[in-house]
Amino acid sequence: MTPPPPAHRVAVVSFEFEGNSLSLRVTRREDFARAGIHTGPAVLAAAAGKDLALTGGIETLRAGGAEVVPIFSAKGGAGGHVADDFFEEAMARILEGVSAALPLDGIYLALHGAMICATEKDPEGAILTALRARIGPDVPMAASLDLHAHVTPRMTDAAEIIIGYETYPHVDAHATGARAAGLLLRRLRGEIRPVTRLRKYNAILPVLGGATLPGAPMAEVAAQARALEEAGRALSVSFFPVQPWLDMADVGITGLAVTDADPEGAEAVAQEILDAMWQRRRDFELPAMTPAEAVQAAMARPGRVLLVDAPDSIGGGASGDAPALLAAILAHAPDTPAALCIVDPAAAARAFALGLGAEAAFQLGAWQDRRWFQPVPLTARVERLCDGDFVFEGGPAGGTTARLGPTAVLRVGGLQLVVASHAVYVHLDEHYAACGVDTAACKLVSHKGLMNYRKQLGPGVSFIALHGPGGTPLRLQDVAWQHRRRPFWPADDMAAPARLD
Ligand SMILES: [Zn+2]
Questions:
Q1: Quick one: 365 and 481 in the same domain?
Q2: Strands 194-200 vs 236-240: parallel, antiparallel or unpaired
Q3: Dihedral (Cα; 86, 140, 109, 451), 10-degree rounding
Q4: Ligand 1 centroid to residue 169 C-alpha, Å
Q5: Based on the domain organization, do 183 and 235 belong to the same domain?
Q6: 106: nearest Cα among 154, 69, 152
Q7: Could you tell me if 415 and 303 lie in one domain?
Q8: Residues 162, 52 share a domain
Q9: Which of 34, 143, 396, 408 is least surrounded by Cβ atoms within 10 Å, i.e. has the fewest?
């Protein structure tokens, strides 16, 4: 009897963060640490049972008989940029961990793809390139990315396999990790020789209109990507409408394909899926109102209304401290049952110092960012104090614990004002429920996100999107870009797209 072949040794790494050049938030080691920074076996324990891409990758590798070698994981949500010292620490830990684990047969990485640091503007490209130098040319690497990744040639040169999420709202992080790991396993068994190529245009699209839900224009792009795969044109086809609030010359919508040893075929398919996005570029705009218009329109509607504060989207990297909607509710619906969450650690600390039941004057919002707003003065009663911990019930971080930090619920007329210490990705209403706020009993509910609110719509629940200034503004053509090259869509109405690859 011949012994079974030794299991393939595959290292797994996860380092996820979405950057935003317009945001003042700096994400440091302590911010990553709140969600957990792990090395070695702790990576596996932290990922077990979650909805993460990393979890999907680990489960698939194990099911395929591979030996999983955990190296590093850290998930930092979204913000402005990552502090250089933490990026350097993470890079060192990843390289040291991989070096100590050699020899390896492959590496799987769960990345976001739109990280930026104070200095390094293509951190994922830097990580993949450094790993390639460390492991040599023959060990395959596979990476899964967010749909909003800023994919660079440095990344596709270093990694044989790159696959992006294909849903927005993001509900397929786990499945994407599984797909990337599945292709890596096929490569390790000698079944395929994957190559990845990208095509990119100088265009950015409004995130709010980028849903892949039935009937939406991006759903047609997603369907075309699946059709190209089913026709056997590529092993995997990804489309990246890109995180648009990155002020860099090489940021643009991207098509990407993985083929079996066919670089020209990959380029052709990447071009087709890129053109599918470009041709629909006028279709991604959604109507939006000023905060005052939105509150008044919501009051005239039946049912509960989700007020989508798009320009202050925490998931897009904004500060979550913009008080424009707060001011509009106080002005136009002061006695209406309403829930609004805002980031203001100084106000939260003041509420804790005052204690439960205290009534006092507060200055709320514009805690970090006063480029567009000033704090709103109000008198409120401290109704509840809580630790701000909760578990995401789904989405790309499903099953993981989020930490708002010390959080106070202030009562102002009909409004329950949740004052958090940290900006945390907004999924559904987990953050309100964690603080005892029942949004089902509210007429108006603020949502500082761009897409997940769609999961809450249904009979008796509608939404209104807001526009205005902020870290994640809707009108991309109005941003004072410093580094984008002209012409670019949507600032310039070009007859033909300008290539960035
Ligand atoms: Zn995304």
A1: no
A2: unpaired
A3: 120
A4: 8
A5: no
A6: 69
A7: yes
A8: yes
A9: 34
Same domain, 46 and 170: yes
pLDDT in the model for residue 274: 98
Give the gyration radius of the chain's Cα atoms.
23
In the reported structure, the alpha carbon of residue 9 is separated from the centroid of ligand 1 by a whole-number distance in angstroms of 30
Which tens digit of pLDDT belongs to each residue from 451-481? Answer: 999 999 999 999 999 999 999 999 999 999 9
Cα of 120 to ligand 1 centre, how many Å?
A: 20
3-state secondary structure at position 157? helix
The per-residue pLDDT for 1 is: 67
Domain harbouring 6, CATH code: 3.40.50.360
Q: How far away, in angstroms, is 362 Cα from ligand 1 center?
A: 34
Q: Distance, CA 113 to ligand 1 centroid (Å)?
A: 9
Per the CB < 8 A criterion, the answer to whether 317 and 23 are in contact is: yes
- The number of domains in the chain is 3
3-class state of residue 21 by DSSP: coil
CA 314–ligand 1 middle distance (angstroms): 12
Q: Which domain holds residue 132?
A: 1-192
- The pLDDT > 70 percentage for the chain reads 100
The reply to whether 57 and 180 lie within a common domain is yes
> Is there a single domain that holds both residue 174 and residue 280?
no
Extract the runs of DSSP E, i.e. beta strands, from 309-397.
338-343, 359-364, 376-386, 389-391
- pLDDT given at position 236: 98
How much is the pTM? Answer: 0.96
Residues 137 and 158 in one domain: yes
Distance 417 CA to ligand 1 centre (A): 27
**Which percentage of the chain shows pLDDT scores above 90?**
98
Instruction: Give the residue from 177, 192, 207 where a domain finishes.
Output: 192
- Say if residue 6's pLDDT is above 90: no
Note the pLDDT tens digit of each residue in 46-76: 999 999 999 999 999 999 999 999 999 999 9
